[in-house]
Amino acid sequence: MNQLEDLCLKTNEIAKKAGAFIKEQQNKIKADVVETKGMHDFVTYVDKTSEELIVTELKKILPEAGFIAEEGTETYRADRYNWIIDPLDGTTNYIHGFSPFSVSIALQENDDIVLGVVYEISLDECFYSWKGADGAFLNGNSIHVSKAKTVDASLIATGFPYYDYDLLKNFMATLEYFILNSHGVRRPGSAATDLAYVACGRFEAFYEYSLQAWDVAAGSFLVKQAGGAVCDFKGGNDYIFGKEIIASNGLVQEEFKSVVQKYMLK
Question: What does the pLDDT read at residue 40?
Answer without folding.
Answer: 43
